[in-house]
Amino acid sequence: MAAYDYDVLYIGSGHGTFDGAAPLAAKGKKVAVVEQDLIGGTCPNRGCNAKIVLDSPVALKRHLEEVHGIITGDVDINWAANQEHKHEVIAGLPDFIQGLLDSSNVDILFGRGTLVDNHTVKVNGEEKTAENIVISTGLQSNRLDIPGSDLAHDSEEFMNLSEMPARVTVIGAGYIAMEFATMASAAGSEVTVITHGDQALRAYHQPYVELVISDLESKGVKFVRGVEVEAIVGGANGLVVRGADLNIDTDWVLDATGRNPNVADLGLEEVGVKFNENGIEVDDHLRTSVENIYASGDVIDKKEPKLTPTAIFESTYLMHTFAGETTDAIDYPVIPSVVFTSPRIAKAGITVAEAQANPDKYTVVENDLSGDWYRQVDKETIGKNTLIFDQDHKLVGATEVSNKAEDVINALLPAMEFKFGPAELERMVYLFPSIASQAWGQL
Ligand SMILES: Cc1cc2nc3c(=O)[nH]c(=O)nc-3n(C[C@H](O)[C@H](O)[C@H](O)COP(=O)(O)OP(=O)(O)OC[C@H]3O[C@@H](n4cnc5c(N)ncnc54)[C@H](O)[C@@H]3O)c2cc1C
Ligand SMILES: NC(=O)c1ccc[n+]([C@@H]2O[C@H](COP(=O)([O-])OP(=O)(O)OC[C@H]3O[C@@H](n4cnc5c(N)ncnc54)[C@H](O)[C@@H]3O)[C@@H](O)[C@H]2O)c1
Predict the structure, then answer these.
(1) CA distance 421 to 71
(2) Which of 30, 38, 229, 259 could form a disulfide with 139 if both were Cys (CB 3.0 to 4.6 A apart)?
(3) In a domain, 332, yes or no
(4) Nearest to residue 307, comparing CAs of 18, 68, 10, 14?
(5) Domain boundary among 257, 275, 298
(6) Where in the chain are disulfide-linked cysteines found (predicted)?
């Protein structure tokens, strides 16, 4: 049998890698991680963690506005201080994650990794061999192919702004567009969101999305729908975003038109790993088209949402595979998702659209939460949820729009994943008063 430098070598050090790589090495496997940038990848450094720190005063500002009168005085966000706070919170994360990998004896190879063959990766001109290779290279921001696209910025640049520009124009209507429009508006910017389709956040329950849009509009955010942006040009007074019948004067443009898989210049074509515009093609064991090469995390072409919890689940699954603990296909659990707008929209399981299309299989229960005493404690102004039950009255889906939507959906996950019936529901005792207790009481 050939002797390799490593049992497993990962390209990329994000959640698609490190949640599995560290325990795998701790089980005695020889593991290496190749990283060309910050350890930990997008989520800690340029995604979830960075974003949620910046969002914290935004959510608090909403809360204070809702209890205005009980709490008196004006509230403003000092963006420069918020930025500094974000830096303090996340700056240590790469070292922390590197510490986890080091303490499990994972070798970290800094540099760009490229495939040479199905057992070899080149890093800094040096070839390293491994029995198995995992490609976990994530996504990068899309750039519109229009004149002046270099005048636009991406989410990472937004999250490094030391001052919030007076006028921000956002192109797109997905997660990043809606979350960052919310932050910019709360921080005092005049915000315009341009969507090329009619709908924002297509995967979410549209009545709830419209509630969030109306709320943003009531705060002065302008939504321009169904327009293709054709150019960004420098004007006498900042920038101008142009489209058919569209001329928007602005100071700063966020291109939030999606993120594309990092598949270029990796040696995929040369080695024969199949991929398409959505990412690397894998089978139900996360194996690529080439033996001994696997893929994990956002870079995979998959129907599951490209989120941190999905990447963690995949890297953990691969850890069990490489440790010889399973030969089973990957069996994804219910994967929740949330948009951190203000209020949030969260969901898990069967969608409302799917349930409404199959009335023989599902019962849809809509709840207006404005009557819930616990929501009135914080004087929440927007609160609705929809619960979906199967024919045995077991919870199979839920979505909520409210300030606490992520906590409600998290609280309901065990009922969905483990298909709890009345006996199990009765055994679940939650602290009272709490949002989990209120959510569970609806079942
Ligand atoms: C602005 C933003 C906000 C987000 N917010 C959330 C959120 O709130 N909740 C949530 O669940 N998800 C969120 N996400 C998504 C989340 O960040 C990703 O799902 C997660 O980071 C995927 O992990 P990954 O390991 O697959 O990829 P990544 O974390 O992107 O890691 C890939 C790594 O590979 C490295 N790499 C690439 N090519 C090479 C190469 N050839 N050689 C060496 N290294 C290479 C990169 O430098 C990078 O470090 C957000 C994303 C963004 C952009
Ligand atoms: N809360 C979270 O979990 C969270 C937050 C931010 C990002 N993310 C992840 O980051 C990734 C990227 O998010 P995103 O918001 O960039 O992508 P997205 O796919 O959610 O949204 C892209 C948006 O751009 C629009 N668009 C595409 N082409 C366009 C064009 N030519 N002109 C105008 N609009 C166009 C689409 O209609 C869509 O509204 C996703 O994988 C997402 O899961 C997650």
Answers:
(1) 43
(2) 259
(3) no
(4) 14
(5) 257
(6) 43-48
CA of 139 to the centre of ligand 1 (A): 6
Tens digit of each residue's pLDDT (9 = 90 or more) over 37-70: 999 999 999 999 999 999 999 999 999 999 999 9
| Amino acid type, 61 | K
Determine if ligand 2 sits within 6 Å of the CB of residue 321: no
Ligand nearest to the CA of 175: 2
Whether the CB of 193 sits within 6 Å of ligand 2: no
Q: Does a structural domain hold residue 335?
A: no
Ligand 2 binding pocket includes 177 (Cβ within 6 Å):
yes
* CATH number of the domain to which 432 belongs: 3.30.390.30
| Residue 315 CB less than 6 A away from ligand 1 | no
Residue 208 sits at the vertex; the CA angle it makes with 206 and 45, to the nearest 5 degrees, is: 95
Rounded CA separation 172/194 (Å): 6
How many Å lie between the centroid of ligand 1 and the Cα of residue 204?
A: 22
What does the block give as tokens for 374?
């616990």
DSSP string, 335-356: --EEE-SSSEEEEEES-HHHHH
How far is ligand 1, taken at its centre, from the CA of residue 9, in Å?
18
Buried/exposed code over 96-105 (b: 16+ C-beta within 10 A; e: otherwise) = ebbebbeebe
Q: What are phi and psi of 438, to 5 degrees?
A: -65, -45
Structural domain including 420 reads 343-441
For ligand 2, what atom is nearest to the CA of residue 144?
Answer: 31
**292 alpha carbon – ligand 1 mean position (Å):** 23
In terms of domains, do 14 and 106 share one?
Answer: yes
Cβ atoms of 317 and 286 closer than 8 Å: yes
| Mean pLDDT over each residue of the chain, to the nearest integer | 97
3-state SS assignment for residue 439: helix
CATH code for position 229: 3.50.50.60
- Alpha-helical (H) ranges within 284-399 are 308-322, 352-357, 373-377
Same domain membership, residue 134 and residue 20: yes
Q: What is the pTM of this model?
A: 0.98
Q: What's the domain count of the chain?
A: 3
Residues listed for the chain: 443
Q: Per DSSP, what are the bridge partners of residue 399?
A: 347, 386
- Examine the fold and report which residue of 323, 358, 377 is the final residue of a domain before the chain moves on: 323
C-alpha 409/C-alpha 374 separation (Å) is 16
pLDDT digits (tens, 9 = 90+) for 377-390: 999 999 999 999 99
